[in-house]
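Fig. S4 source data, part A: sequence.
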Amino acid sequence: MLMFGDGGWEPDRTDAQETRLGEWMDGLRGSRARVVVLECGAGTGVPTVRMFGEQLVRAVGATLVRV
């Protein structure tokens, strides 16, 4: 997940966070948890933020609110 020439990025912390996020999302499947994603000011120029909320809607039936 590099942007704008971040060639020296050290991925260890990001990798650990992505692992924890995946485990959290896996735990939501089949649970009775209700997830709401509140997305504030995410433009269309860099769509990765918007895609994450949409992914949660598909994966766990989250409610997505875009402001």
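Fig. S4 source data, part B ends here. The CA atoms of residues 16 and 33 lie 23 Å apart.
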